Amino acid sequence: MENISEVTEFILVGLTDALEMQIPLFIILFLIYLITLVGNLGMIMLILLDSRLHTPMYFFLSNLSLVDCVYASAVTPKVIVGFLTGDKIISYNACAAQMFFFAAFATTESFLLASMAFDRHVAVCKPLHYTTTMTITVCTLLVAGPYICGLLESSIHVALTFHLSFCHSNVVNHFFCDIPPLLALSCSDINTNEIVLFILAAFNVFFTLLIILNSYLFIFIAILRMHSTEGQKKAFSTCVSHLTTVSIFYGTIIFMYLQPSSSHSMDTDKMASVFYTMVIPMLNPLVYSLRNKEVKNAFRKVVGKAKSSLALAY
User: Fold this and answer.
1) 11 φ, ψ (degrees, to nearest 5)
2) Cα gap 21→176, rounded to integer Å
3) Over the stretch 225-241, which tens digit does the pLDDT of each residue have?
4) Which label site among 166, 182, 204, 258 has the fewest CB atoms less than 10 Å from its CB?
């Protein structure tokens, strides 16, 4: 990638310049990141350790947890260190790397949520054919596809963005290297970048939402046709966590990226960005664990084994 910019580093404005807010924000964001890592890595470990969770649904969920860990880690540690040390400088290459990993795994998450909706559709609408439909090959393709799309789209965004010339300023009015604030700094023609950003974001949102809404339409029809109230509750409960995650994730993404740059208020965007870069990765394992009896049982089983091992050791 040829660097034609005169800029060698960027200065991230951050969330706030108020000195009295630095330590409180450091503590809050550190706790959020800690919960994110513990929650998502814990979810992955539970799924690996408990054979009862070796099903397609939990295969997708473990990948969702992995994606959340990576794209939260692309942004949050730099922000936390900035509050602690006051260092707001990020090198040109580090900025490109941060944008790449964040964009890749945020895009991966959107497609992965669509794969999970398809899985729920098959589980509720075609339960007798579930094991023959959701084979290892099908599950692998439904997970590999999102990763491939995420990496390809991120490569396009990074290549287009970092071939621009940043000769006006190197001060990024954001707390991480996101696409819209970097485009605002360029003295090159950014029409192509804005069009590509809008097209890819629109494709991601509408294609994946089409799959999700179509899946849930058939799910709700199947639930309404069930004669057993208990069966309806069980079928609906398997979908509530996923629906919650989808609503939070897509609501924020639509707000952030499906509007022209002239409509962007950076202060508002920062607040929305905090939500989807830090809060959503923290919420996902909580949403899936608090409403899921199988995950709770797996957790109790692991805790029970740990207590037994400690008792034997002493």
Assistant:
1) -110, 120
2) 18
3) 887 777 777 777 777 77
4) 258
Mapped to the 3 state alphabet, what secondary structure does the chain carry? CCCCCCCCEEEECCCCCCHHHHHHHHHHHHHHHHHHHHHHHHHHHHHHHCHHHCCHHHHHHHHHHHHHHHHHHCCHHHHHHHHHHCCCEEEHHHHHHHHHHHHHHHHHHHHHHHHHHHHHHHHHHCHHHHHHHCCHHHHHHHHHHHHHHHHHHHHHHHHHHCCCCCCCCCEECCCCCCHHHHHCCCCCCCHHHHHHHHHHHHHHHHHHHHHHHHHHHHHHHHHHHCCCHHHHHHHHHHHHHHHHHHHHHHHHHHHHHCCCHHHCCHHHHHHHHHHHHHHHHHHHHHHHHHCCHHHHHHHHHHHHHHHHHHHHHC
Residue with tokens 């900025």: 95
Provide the CB-side half-sphere exposure for 235 (13 A, CA). 23
> Which residue in this structure is represented by tokens 């199947």?
222
Give the residue among 93, 72, 101 at the shortest CA–CA distance from 273.
Answer: 72
Longest pairwise C-alpha distance within the chain: 69
Contacts of 35 (CB under 8 A, 6+ apart): 282
For 86, left (φ over 0), alpha (ψ -120 to 50), or beta? Answer: left
Q: Please write the tens of the pLDDT for every residue from 7-49.
A: 889 999 988 887 888 889 999 999 999 999 999 999 999 899 8
Look at the alpha carbons of 75, 76, 81, 83 in this order and tell me if their dihedral is positive or negative. positive
Q: Are strands 9-12 and 89-91 parallel, antiparallel or unpaired?
A: antiparallel
Distance CA 72, CA 120 (A): 26
